Protein backbone atom coordinates (compact mmCIF):
# COMPACT_ATOMS: atom_id res chain seq x y z
CA UNK A 1 0.00 0.00 0.00
CA UNK A 2 3.03 2.27 -0.14
CA UNK A 3 3.37 2.30 -3.91
CA UNK A 4 1.70 1.20 -7.12
CA UNK A 5 -0.39 -1.88 -6.44
CA UNK A 6 -3.52 -3.80 -7.42
CA UNK A 7 -6.66 -5.13 -5.76
CA UNK A 8 -7.38 -1.95 -3.83
CA UNK A 9 -10.54 -0.27 -2.59
CA UNK A 10 -10.21 3.30 -1.29
CA UNK A 11 -12.72 5.45 0.57
CA UNK A 12 -11.94 9.11 1.20
CA UNK A 13 -13.60 12.29 2.38
CA UNK A 14 -12.53 15.92 2.02
CA UNK A 15 -13.02 18.44 4.82
CA UNK A 16 -14.31 15.58 7.03
CA UNK A 17 -17.80 15.50 5.50
CA UNK A 18 -17.83 19.29 5.50
CA UNK A 19 -17.41 19.61 9.27
CA UNK A 20 -13.69 20.49 9.43
CA UNK A 21 -12.13 22.58 6.66
CA UNK A 22 -8.77 21.26 5.51
CA UNK A 23 -9.09 17.84 7.17
CA UNK A 24 -8.95 14.95 4.68
CA UNK A 25 -9.29 11.30 5.63
CA UNK A 26 -8.80 8.12 3.60
CA UNK A 27 -9.18 4.40 4.35
CA UNK A 28 -7.84 1.69 2.06
CA UNK A 29 -8.28 -2.06 1.76
CA UNK A 30 -5.96 -4.19 -0.35
CA UNK A 31 -6.66 -7.78 -1.28
CA UNK A 32 -4.14 -10.61 -1.39
CA UNK A 33 -1.72 -10.70 -4.35
CA UNK A 34 0.72 -13.58 -4.58
CA UNK A 35 0.21 -15.85 -7.60
CA UNK A 36 2.49 -14.57 -10.38
CA UNK A 37 4.18 -11.65 -8.65
CA UNK A 38 7.80 -11.60 -7.51
CA UNK A 39 8.12 -12.45 -3.83
CA UNK A 40 9.00 -8.87 -2.85
CA UNK A 41 5.87 -7.58 -4.61
CA UNK A 42 3.49 -10.03 -2.97
CA UNK A 43 1.15 -9.06 -0.15
CA UNK A 44 -1.64 -10.51 1.94
CA UNK A 45 -4.87 -8.80 2.93
CA UNK A 46 -4.26 -5.41 4.46
CA UNK A 47 -5.75 -2.11 5.56
CA UNK A 48 -4.42 1.42 5.77
CA UNK A 49 -5.58 4.82 6.98
CA UNK A 50 -4.24 8.30 6.32
CA UNK A 51 -5.14 11.81 7.45
CA UNK A 52 -4.09 15.28 6.30
CA UNK A 53 -4.83 18.62 7.92
CA UNK A 54 -4.02 21.85 6.09
CA UNK A 55 -4.06 25.34 7.59
CA UNK A 56 -2.91 28.22 5.40
CA UNK A 57 0.64 27.28 4.25
CA UNK A 58 1.09 24.33 6.62
CA UNK A 59 0.03 20.70 6.21
CA UNK A 60 0.29 17.95 8.82
CA UNK A 61 -0.08 14.32 7.81
CA UNK A 62 0.03 10.82 9.22
CA UNK A 63 -0.59 7.32 7.89
CA UNK A 64 -0.67 3.73 9.11
CA UNK A 65 -0.89 0.41 7.27
CA UNK A 66 -0.93 -3.25 8.30
CA UNK A 67 -0.93 -6.22 5.91
CA UNK A 68 -0.53 -9.96 6.18
CA UNK A 69 2.61 -11.34 4.56
CA UNK A 70 2.41 -14.34 2.26
CA UNK A 71 3.59 -17.83 3.19
CA UNK A 72 6.40 -17.52 0.64
CA UNK A 73 7.69 -14.32 2.23
CA UNK A 74 7.63 -15.79 5.73
CA UNK A 75 9.40 -18.96 4.54
CA UNK A 76 12.06 -16.91 2.74
CA UNK A 77 12.78 -15.06 5.97
CA UNK A 78 13.40 -18.30 7.83
CA UNK A 79 16.04 -19.33 5.27
CA UNK A 80 17.82 -15.94 5.38
CA UNK A 81 17.63 -14.68 8.99
CA UNK A 82 19.05 -11.20 9.41
CA UNK A 83 18.63 -10.42 5.72
CA UNK A 84 15.03 -11.25 4.87
CA UNK A 85 12.29 -10.50 7.40
CA UNK A 86 10.28 -13.49 8.63
CA UNK A 87 7.47 -11.67 10.48
CA UNK A 88 3.85 -12.44 9.63
CA UNK A 89 2.77 -8.78 9.33
CA UNK A 90 4.04 -5.91 7.18
CA UNK A 91 3.42 -2.74 9.16
CA UNK A 92 4.21 0.93 8.68
CA UNK A 93 3.44 4.28 10.26
CA UNK A 94 4.60 7.72 9.14
CA UNK A 95 4.05 11.34 10.10
CA UNK A 96 5.16 14.56 8.48
CA UNK A 97 4.84 18.31 8.16
CA UNK A 98 4.99 20.59 5.12
CA UNK A 99 5.26 24.33 4.56
CA UNK A 100 4.47 25.56 1.05
CA UNK A 101 4.35 29.19 -0.08
CA UNK A 102 4.78 30.86 -3.46
CA UNK A 103 8.58 30.78 -3.23
CA UNK A 104 9.53 28.40 -0.42
CA UNK A 105 8.85 24.70 0.12
CA UNK A 106 9.96 22.77 3.22
CA UNK A 107 8.96 19.31 4.40
CA UNK A 108 10.05 16.63 6.84
CA UNK A 109 8.79 13.12 7.53
CA UNK A 110 9.59 10.36 10.03
CA UNK A 111 8.31 6.82 9.98
CA UNK A 112 8.98 3.24 11.01
CA UNK A 113 8.29 -0.03 9.25
CA UNK A 114 8.26 -3.72 10.11
CA UNK A 115 8.91 -6.53 7.62
CA UNK A 116 8.42 -4.48 4.47
CA UNK A 117 11.33 -2.19 3.51
CA UNK A 118 13.52 -3.57 0.68
CA UNK A 119 17.28 -3.04 0.66
CA UNK A 120 20.36 -4.23 -1.17
CA UNK A 121 19.94 -7.13 -3.56
CA UNK A 122 16.29 -8.03 -2.94
CA UNK A 123 16.34 -8.30 0.86
CA UNK A 124 13.66 -7.11 3.31
CA UNK A 125 14.54 -5.44 6.61
CA UNK A 126 13.02 -6.63 9.90
CA UNK A 127 12.58 -3.06 11.11
CA UNK A 128 13.51 0.39 9.81
CA UNK A 129 13.49 3.97 11.03
CA UNK A 130 13.16 6.45 8.16
CA UNK A 131 13.73 10.21 8.08
CA UNK A 132 13.59 12.68 5.22
CA UNK A 133 13.83 16.47 5.07
CA UNK A 134 13.80 18.70 1.99
CA UNK A 135 13.72 22.40 1.22
CA UNK A 136 13.37 24.20 -2.10
CA UNK A 137 13.35 27.88 -3.04
CA UNK A 138 11.77 29.24 -6.22
CA UNK A 139 13.33 32.35 -7.78
CA UNK A 140 11.44 34.69 -10.09
CA UNK A 141 13.63 33.66 -13.03
CA UNK A 142 12.47 30.02 -12.77
CA UNK A 143 15.52 28.67 -10.91
CA UNK A 144 14.58 26.19 -8.16
CA UNK A 145 17.53 24.97 -6.03
CA UNK A 146 16.83 22.24 -3.49
CA UNK A 147 18.54 20.47 -0.61
CA UNK A 148 17.46 17.17 0.93
CA UNK A 149 18.64 14.66 3.52
CA UNK A 150 17.41 11.05 3.61
CA UNK A 151 18.24 8.25 6.02
CA UNK A 152 16.84 4.76 6.50
CA UNK A 153 18.31 2.61 9.28
CA UNK A 154 17.57 -1.11 9.47
CA UNK A 155 17.58 -3.21 12.61
CA UNK A 156 18.05 -6.96 12.38
CA UNK A 157 16.17 -9.04 14.95
CA UNK A 158 18.75 -11.77 14.39
CA UNK A 159 21.86 -9.70 15.20
CA UNK A 160 20.35 -6.68 16.97
CA UNK A 161 22.61 -4.39 14.94
CA UNK A 162 21.60 -1.11 13.33
CA UNK A 163 22.75 -0.62 9.73
CA UNK A 164 22.17 2.37 7.45
CA UNK A 165 20.68 1.11 4.19
CA UNK A 166 20.05 4.61 2.80
CA UNK A 167 21.86 7.76 3.91
CA UNK A 168 22.62 10.65 1.61
CA UNK A 169 22.46 14.39 0.97
CA UNK A 170 20.82 15.46 -2.27
CA UNK A 171 21.71 18.81 -3.84
CA UNK A 172 19.71 19.73 -6.90
CA UNK A 173 18.41 22.51 -9.08
CA UNK A 174 15.74 22.86 -11.75
CA UNK A 175 15.54 25.80 -14.13
CA UNK A 176 12.36 26.48 -16.07
CA UNK A 177 13.51 27.80 -19.44
CA UNK A 178 9.91 28.16 -20.63
CA UNK A 179 6.43 26.91 -19.80
CA UNK A 180 7.29 23.61 -21.48
CA UNK A 181 11.03 23.08 -21.00
CA UNK A 182 13.07 22.66 -17.82
CA UNK A 183 16.66 21.56 -17.26
CA UNK A 184 17.77 19.81 -14.09
CA UNK A 185 20.90 18.71 -12.29
CA UNK A 186 21.11 16.62 -9.14
CA UNK A 187 24.05 15.43 -7.05
CA UNK A 188 23.56 12.69 -4.46
CA UNK A 189 26.31 12.57 -1.84
CA UNK A 190 26.23 9.05 -0.41
CA UNK A 191 27.12 9.02 3.31
CA UNK A 192 27.37 5.23 3.62
CA UNK A 193 30.95 3.97 3.74
CA UNK A 194 31.88 0.94 1.70
CA UNK A 195 32.44 -2.22 3.77
CA UNK A 196 32.40 -5.99 3.45
CA UNK A 197 28.74 -5.91 4.51
CA UNK A 198 27.61 -3.31 1.97
CA UNK A 199 29.41 -5.24 -0.75
CA UNK A 200 27.92 -8.59 0.25
CA UNK A 201 24.30 -7.35 0.28
CA UNK A 202 24.88 -4.81 -2.53
CA UNK A 203 23.98 -1.60 -0.70
CA UNK A 204 25.01 1.32 -2.89
CA UNK A 205 27.80 3.54 -1.55
CA UNK A 206 28.44 5.55 -4.73
CA UNK A 207 27.81 9.25 -5.30
CA UNK A 208 25.47 9.92 -8.23
CA UNK A 209 25.12 12.86 -10.61
CA UNK A 210 21.98 13.20 -12.73
CA UNK A 211 21.28 15.74 -15.47
CA UNK A 212 18.30 15.99 -17.74
CA UNK A 213 15.78 18.00 -19.71
CA UNK A 214 12.03 17.80 -19.12
CA UNK A 215 9.55 18.71 -21.82
CA UNK A 216 5.90 19.09 -20.83
CA UNK A 217 3.25 18.85 -23.52
From TrEMBL:
Task: Recite the UniProt keywords alphabetically.
Answer: Signal
One annotated GO molecular function: porin activity
Keyword Iron part of the UniProt annotation: no
- Kindly give the SUPFAM superfamilies that the UniProt entry links to this protein: Porins
Which cellular component, as a GO term, is one annotated location? cell outer membrane
**Mind listing the GO biological process terms from this record?**
monoatomic ion transmembrane transport
Q: Which InterPro entries match?
A: Gram-neg_bact_OMP (IPR050298), Porin_dom_sf (IPR023614), Porin_gammaproteobac (IPR001897), Porin_Gram-ve (IPR001702)
Whether Signal counts among this entry's keywords is: yes
Query: Which PANTHER family does this chain map to?
Result: OUTER MEMBRANE PORIN F-RELATED (PTHR34501:SF2), PROTEIN YDDL-RELATED (PTHR34501)
> What is the official name of this protein in its record?
Putative outer membrane porin
Amino acid sequence: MTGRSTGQAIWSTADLFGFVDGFNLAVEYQGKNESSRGINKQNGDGVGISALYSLENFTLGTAYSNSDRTDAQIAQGKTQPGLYASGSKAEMWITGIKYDSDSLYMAAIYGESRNMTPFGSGYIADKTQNFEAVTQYIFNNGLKPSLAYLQSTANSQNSGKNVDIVKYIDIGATWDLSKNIAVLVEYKINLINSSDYTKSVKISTDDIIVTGINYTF
